[in-house]
Write a structure and sequence with these properties.
Strand content: under 5%
Number of strands: 0
Number of helices: 12
Oligomer: single chain
Radius of gyration: 20 Å
Helix content: over 70%
Structural class: mainly alpha
Order of helices and strands: HHHHHHHHHHHH
């Protein structure tokens, strides 16, 4: 074959790969930009209903809608999956991340809770090395140390103000990093609609169990009765926006690596900070801002180092 033709084919393959990866990053950008909007609706329900019950209602609505869409598109075959335990694990991580984050934003300023949860990209990079066997580099460890330093700085004023509940966003970050890895592991198993239905289905089950248990065991999680119509409406809005964002995020993981997607989460800080200040009137603590900046810089450093370390295919 003509060497020039071979070179053009290789260059075309490389351009296609870049286009696919670029579309994955764009989808993740849209998804992460949309999450704080749903968070704002959740925060507006503080005091109306306990966090586990709100989370359970939100995912129940989402699971029902996704089940209808999946049946309409694929019929009964759409509900047949392999390794269901893996999808149950996805639902568990999402449930844990949701209930801890909802609880955090009920109490803390939205921007602070989001900023602490930004340890997520660093944890994703670590989990990628442990579970996906991606090579761990010195840059990853350096970014991890700096990011955890930023988390500690952020936790100091927040623990003083809100107690140890300020650690909840950190638990959220661990859970969501695990979810990204699990998404990557199942990305080739089923259709996007099936994957999104099962994560919502299992999350709804785990959150419902947590809601019932909390109702009887913890006074702060006591459910006073059926929710008002405006709570149901806001949960439905969150279900639509968040499910759409998770749908886009799942599509992104099919087009590029989890480590490449993770740093894009930082767009949430901008959106969440604007909402926190201008909608809820929260003041951003200067010391917390320093810690959040360290987390942000460590994530961007890791992202840049990952791009430099990525192999380049020569034509």
């Amino acid at each position: 074959m003509d060497p020039l033709l071979i070179g053009r084919i290789l260059q075309a393959d490389k351009n296609i790969g870049k286009t696919v990866a670029g579309s994955g990053i764009l989808l993740a950008l849209i998804a992460f930009s949309g999450f704080p909007i749903g968070d704002a609706f959740i925060k507006s329900m503080a005091g109306d209903w306990p966090a586990p019950a709100v989370a359970a209602l939100r995912f129940t609505i989402g699971a029902i809608a996704l089940a209808a869409i999946l049946y309409w598109r694929e019929g009964r075959a759409g509900f047949q999956i392999s390794r269901p335990w893996l999808h149950a694990a996805r639902g568990l991580t999402l449930a844990v991340g949701t209930i801890t984050f909802f609880s955090a934003i009920f109490i803390m300023p939205l921007a602070d809770a989001v900023a602490i949860s930004f340890i997520n990209p660093i944890l994703t990079a670590l989990f990628s090395g442990w579970f996906l066997k991606e090579k761990m580099r010195p840059a990853t460890w350096l970014a991890t140390i700096v990011a955890f330093g930023g988390v500690l700085i952020m936790l100091r004023p927040n623990v003083a103000a809100f107690g140890w509940v300020a650690i909840l966003p950190l638990i959220t970050a661990v859970a969501m990093a695990a979810m990204l890895i699990l998404n990557r592991m199942v990305s080739s198993q089923r259709s996007i609609f099936a994957a999104q239905f099962y994560i919502a289905f299992w999350a709804a089950i785990f959150l419902s169990i947590a809601s019932v248990a909390g109702h009887f065991l913890l006074p702060v999680m006591f459910v006073p009765g059926a929710p008002d119509w405006d709570v149901i409406l806001r949960c439905a809005i969150v279900a639509v926006t968040a499910t759409g964002c998770h749908f886009l995020l799942y599509m992104a993981t099919m087009r590029t690596t989890a480590a490449a997607i993770a740093p894009i989460v930082y767009i949430q800080l901008i959106v969440a900070s604007l909402i926190s200040v201008f909608i809820f009137g929260d003041a951003i603590d200067p010391l917390a801002l320093v810690g959040g900046s360290l987390i942000l810089l460590s994530g961007l450093f890791l992202w840049r180092s990952e791009r430099r370390a990525a192999p380049v295919v020569e034509a």
